[in-house]
Design brief:
This protein is 34% helix and 23% strand. By secondary structure, the chain is of the alpha+beta class. The protein has 3 domains: 7-76 and 185-190, Winged helix-like DNA-binding domain superfamily/Winged helix DNA-binding domain (Arc Repressor Mutant, subunit A); 83-174, Orthogonal Bundle (Arc Repressor Mutant, subunit A), CATH 1.10.10; 219-466, Bira Bifunctional Protein, Domain 2 (BirA Bifunctional Protein, domain 2, 2-Layer Sandwich). Strands 9-12-13-17-16-15-14 form a 7-stranded mixed sheet, with helices on both faces. Strands 1-2 form a two-stranded antiparallel sheet.
């Protein structure tokens, strides 16, 4: 018997009914009655059997857990299963395996392309990256025929139902529709199935005081507000823009080639039946010439006009600079961005990003590193280092890392650099531009000690209420 729960006995129709004092609310009584003769019920199961809505059931379950009248039966668990593309690959073979088979059997390019269809591009990419094949024009050339492809064993285990929730599915991380996952909800049972429970009007003098939770903002919102305040205190102005942008501002203006993998449909959300303002004709022509000179080939104006859900917020600040060409500026943009990613512990389809620019004669990479150090310090991150890297629209480019004491290791945060002349000159920007950007959720994960980005969107009331206001 738990402390604070007073037993009593009543005679009902000649029999003894065990009573838990305090189980007197009608929601509790309905849940207790609905859980009889059941072995493990989820919240939705309990709500259906008790005739309650989901919120009432969740509230009543928590009350009964606190009183010891019910207990957890199974914890939430991750379940992996094959999506439509995965089921097809399990039956017919992975696209890369089918491609390798045809090349090994001597099929010509026309037959291969006709048979593979839209799967040809991804299959070629996988084979070339793994050194199994190379391309000579349109003809694939076999270099090595692998006995096993990592994804095949994953599909076999998932197809047979013999796949643990810890199975490594990183092979399909960037391949939507192959392996999906869902979370099975927790289940509950009566703490003492052999006892009967009835309402009791007695008062438990040892019962604890009901907990009361004050309203508060979400931890992710707190992080966003803190970042915004930090940049504004450093003299930056916030620039806002639409979440739907033309491909011109999202990609072309930033010197991203039109055949770059990031522009494919498996990485970007293209919008239909949406009108976006086209780029000015003379600006578009200068950008087109920069692409022809820098990347070769032709430049497709129709492709540049396609509307997309923005994949970053740099499109907002670069458009601001192109329209204003300020002599000096400190500006940042903060908001939601979208990537066609498979959601997992470190990736989401929709997340938040902050990025900014500094414009001025004589600004240098040293100024950028100093400004970043100052920003990280304001966010409570003192150990910072930088190393050279590559980004399509900045040169030179740097990656920043901060040391996280909780994890005991260095963690990548913002990418940064100076906009290339191929970005600034076609847009009429006449002065050097320092630029940087990064994901806000990653900063929130470091701040609150989270190892799964989905926690920020899980609406776990226990976690949300337990988060300190000033971690």
């Amino acid at each position: 018997m738990r402390a604070g729960i007073l037993p009593s006995f009543k005679k009902v129709f000649g029999g003894t009914i065990f009573v838990l004092a305090g189980i007197s609310h009608w929601i509790e009584q309905k849940i207790i009655h609905g859980m009889r003769n059941a072995d493990g019920l989820s919240v939705s199961d309990i709500a259906g059997r008790a005739g309650l809505d989901a919120d009432q059931a969740r509230r009543g379950i928590q009350w009964l857990l606190d009183k010891g009248a019910i207990r957890a039966h199974t914890a939430p668990r991750r379940v992996l299963y094959l999506g439509e593309a995965g089921a097809r690959a399990a039956a017919e073979g992975l696209p890369e395996r089918r491609l390798l088979d045809m090349v090994r059997d001597g099929a010509d390019a026309d037959r291969i392309y006709h048979t593979m269809g839209r799967e040809m591009g991804p299959a070629v990419g996988v084979c070339v990256r793994n050194g199994w094949m190379r391309m000579e024009g349109r003809q694939p050339i076999l270099l090595e025929y692998p006995d096993a492809i990592p994804g095949e064993s994953i599909l076999e285990r998932l197809g047979s139902g013999d796949a643990p929730h810890t199975l490594d599915i990183s092979y399909f991380e960037r391949r939507p529709g192959y392996v999906l996952e869902r979370t099975e909800p927790p289940t509950y049972v009566l703490a003492d199935p052999d006892s009967e429970y009835a309402a009791d009007d007695s008062i438990d003098v040892e019962a604890g005081v009901a907990e009361s939770y004050i309203a508060r903002t979400h931890p992710l919102f707190d992080t966003i507000a803190e970042i915004r305040e930090a940049f504004m205190s450093l003299g930056f102005d916030e620039v806002v823009g639409d979440m739907v942008q033309s491909s011109f501002w999202n990609f072309d203006a930033l010197f991203t080639p039109q055949d770059h993998p990031a522009r494919e449909m498996q990485d970007t959300f293209y919008m239909g039946d949406v009108r976006v303002e086209p780029a000015p004709g003379e600006v578009a022509e200068r950008v087109a010439e920069a692409h022809r000179s820098g990347w070769g080939g032709d430049w497709d104006a129709e492709r540049a006009a396609q509307p997309v859900l923005r994949t970053h917020t740099t499109c907002v600040t670069i458009r601001h600079l192109a329209e204003a060409d300020p002599a000096e500026a400190r500006a940042f943009s903060l908001g939601r961005v979208f990537r066609n990613e498979k959601p997992n512990y470190k990736h989401l389809v929709e997340f938040h990003q902050v990025e900014g620019v500094v414009v001025g004669d004589g600004v240098s990479l040293r100024d950028l590193m100093g400004m970043q150090r100052r920003f990280y310090s304001m966010m409570g991150m003192e150990r910072v280092k930088f190393w050279p890297t590559y980004f399509p629209y900045t040169e030179p480019s740097l990656q920043s890392m901060v040391y996280n004491d909780t994890l005991g290791k260095w963690v990548e945060l913002f990418g940064m650099g100076m906009f290339r002349p191929e970005v600034t000159k076609p847009l009429g920007i006449s002065r050097p531009v320092l630029a940087w950007g990064g994901g806000i959720e990653r900063m929130a994960m470091l701040k609150y000690g989270i190892d799964d980005i989905r926690t920020l969107y899980g609406n776990d009331m226990g976690w949300l209420r337990g988060m300190p206001l000033c971690p």
